[in-house]
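From the methods appendix. Each design record in this collection lists the tokenized structure first, followed by the designed amino acid sequence. Records were kept in a plain field format so they could be parsed without special tools. The example shown here is representative of the layout used throughout.

RECORD:
FOLD TOKENS (261 positions):
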């Protein structure tokens, strides 16, 4: 469990540690699959998943596409959970999870065919460093893909005030507009950029598909029986619903140039 309380921890820690969700990024596994197809992942692809969390997306991609995937996360507890889950699903030969800092990736230049990440850049201030590291470890001509919360336009101060009241502030402190993300990616070394906007939608509709019936039932039981969890979840859903005009997510896919300009 995180050091902070249920009411004060950031959105992702709350969903992962207190609620028990395993698919935490916007768009769920549908968005993961869309990201993979835009990167042309196949069984021969060597893929790096930055900020892999509990390994849910990496495991999904390894099972569906047969790729070899290396997942890295700064949270050693998440890495242990991801490793155990991969072994349980008998995918240990296709998956390798490691504790590592995304700003100082422990890989040489040009090691991966595809480097991707989901809902990570919104949590860190040095976004340019993270993108440049992702580009560095990707081979020339390879794909780099990000899936991030995105503003449709510059939001009003009231959005951040409401986010703070809902303990969601950490997710939006470093969120950019679609245009802001595109500028960051281009300036950090990505070329041939494609942007696919996505609707946030209603989390409950996707939960049974992404989490599976058993874990979805556990999550719904917590919501029904734990007033503290229910209040926080209701506040989060209400926040996203009330600011749906401003908040989307984006899938941003580019390539590492064949030659450095």
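DESIGN:
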């Amino acid at each position: 469990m995180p050091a902070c309380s249920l009411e004060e921890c950031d959105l992702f820690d709350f969903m992962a540690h207190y609620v028990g969700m395993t698919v935490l990024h916007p768009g769920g596994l549908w968005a993961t699959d869309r990201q993979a197809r835009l990167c042309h992942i196949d069984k021969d692809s060597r893929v790096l998943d930055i900020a892999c969390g509990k390994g849910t997306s990496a495991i999904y991609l390894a099972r569906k596409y047969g790729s070899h995937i290396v997942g890295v996360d700064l949270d050693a507890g998440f890495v242990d959970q991801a490793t155990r889950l991969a072994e349980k699903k008998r995918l240990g030969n296709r998956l390798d999870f490691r504790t590592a800092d995304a700003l100082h990736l422990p890989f040489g230049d040009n090691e991966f065919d595809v480097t991707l990440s989901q809902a990570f850049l919104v949590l860190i201030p040095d976004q340019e460093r993270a993108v440049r590291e992702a580009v560095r470890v990707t081979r020339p001509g390879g794909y780099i893909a990000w899936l991030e919360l995105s503003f449709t336009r510059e939001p009003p101060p009231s959005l951040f005030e409401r986010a703070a009241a809902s303990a969601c502030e950490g997710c939006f402190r470093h969120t950019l507009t679609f245009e802001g993300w595109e500028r960051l990616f281009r300036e950090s070394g990505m070329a041939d950029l494609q942007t696919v906007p996505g609707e946030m939608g209603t989390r409950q509709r996707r939960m049974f598909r992404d989490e599976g019936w058993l874990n979805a039932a556990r999550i719904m039981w917590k919501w029904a029986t734990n007033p503290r969890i229910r209040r926080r979840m209701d506040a989060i859903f209400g926040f996203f619903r009330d600011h749906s005009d401003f908040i989307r997510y984006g899938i941003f896919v580019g390539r590492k140039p064949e030659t450095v300009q």
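APPENDIX NOTE: The mean pLDDT is 88.
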